[in-house]
Write a structure and sequence with these properties.
The complex is a heterodimer. Chain A is an alpha/beta fold. Chain A is built from five helices and eight strands, in the order H-H-H-H-H-E-E-E-E-E-E-E-E. In chain A, the strands form three sheets. Chain A has a four-stranded mixed sheet, with no helix packed on it. In chain A, strands 2-3 form a two-stranded antiparallel ribbon. The chains are: A alpha/beta, B alpha+beta.
C-alpha cells in the first residue's frame, strides 16, 4: 500500500496504545522524521525506509513498555487490550474484548462484549460493573 | 529465551550507550541518530524509529538529555535536536565503565 505522510502517521498511531501526551509526542517526532527523509532523498519511500506502519507501531509498543515499568499495578491494568474472535454472528464478532483506552473509552461490540464501553447481547462494562 | 529475544534485549541496553556516545560528540536530531548508529555499526544494530524514540523519551524524562528546536537555513520547519546534559555525561561515563567491566569479564569467560 502507498502512504503519504498523513496516512502513514495515522496508521502508525492507530496501533500505538498509550496516553495522549505520548501519542502527540510520537506524531510530532515521526512527522519531523518523515520530513527529514523527504528532504534528504526525494525518492524516500516510507515503507522501505521506516517499515510497515503496523510493525512500526509494534516496535513502539514493545519499547514504550520499558518506559513505565514502575507504574502502580492499577495503572498497569489499564494498558489497552483487544481481542476479537474470528467467529461472527449477524456480522458481529462472537467475542470482542476491548479495554484500557484513553479515559476508559475503548468500545467493544460483539455478541459477548467486554470493554470500557460494551455494546452487545451480553455485555460487561469493565469500569462500571452492574 | 529465544535467540531473537536475546538479541533484542541485548541491543536495547546497548543502544542507550551508543546514543549517549553520539550526543557527547555533538547535538543530533532523530533521523541523524538513526543514520549515525546504523552507519557506525555497519547496520548490525539496525536502529528503527520505534526503538529510538522511546529511548529518547525515557532519557529526556530522566533529564539525561534535553531537546530544543532549531530552524536551519533554507529549511522552513524547525527541527528537534537532542543534547546531553551534565547528568547525562556522568551517566555515560558510569555506563561505559560498567560496559567495559562486564564485556571484559564475559570475554575472559568466552576466551578461556
Amino acid at each position: 500500500m502507498k502512504y503519504d505522510k498523513e496516512s502513514y502517521l495515522k496508521e502508525v498511531l492507530k496501533g500505538i496504545h498509550t496516553d495522549r501526551k505520548t501519542k502527540k509526542r510520537i506524531k510530532e517526532d515521526l512527522g519531523i522524521r518523515i520530513d527529514d527523509g523527504y528532504k534528504e532523498d526525494p525518492f524516500f519511500d516510507l515503507v522501505i525506509e521506516m517499515g510497515e506502519p503496523s510493525l512500526v507501531a509494534e516496535d513502539f509498543m514493545e519499547n514504550l513498555d520499558v518506559i513505565y515499568p514502575d507504574l502502580p499495578f492499577v495503572i498497569q491494568q489499564m494498558v489497552p487490550y483487544e481481542y476479537r474472535s474470528k467467529a461472527n454472528i449477524f456480522g458481529l464478532p462472537l467475542v470482542h474484548i476491548h479495554t484500557g483506552g484513553a479515559k476508559n473509552n475503548s468500545v467493544a461490540k460483539g455478541v459477548l462484549a467486554i470493554g470500557d464501553i460494551a455494546i452487545g447481547f451480553r455485555r460487561w462494562i469493565e469500569s462500571n460493573v452492574a | 529465551m529465544k535467540q531473537e529475544n536475546f538479541k533484542k534485549q541485548f541491543k536495547k541496553g546497548l543502544l542507550e550507550l551508543g546514543i549517549l556516545k553520539l550526543l557527547t560528540e555533538s547535538d543530533h536530531y532523530g533521523y541523524s541518530i538513526i543514520k549515525e548508529i546504523n552507519t557506525r555499526s555497519n547496520n548490525t544494530l539496525d536502529l528503527r524509529d520505534g526503538t529510538l524514540y522511546p529511548i529518547l523519551y525515557r532519557l529526556e524524562d530522566q533529564k539525561i538529555i534535553e531537546s530544543y528546536w532549531e530552524t536551519q537555513e533554507g529549511r522552513g520547519k524547525p527541527r528537534k535536536y537532542y543534547k546531553i546534559t551534565e547528568i547525562g555525561k556522568e551517566r555515560y561515563v558510569n555506563m561505559l565503565e560498567d560496559f567495559n567491566l562486564v564485556t571484559g569479564g564475559i570475554n575472559s569467560i568466552i576466551n578461556q
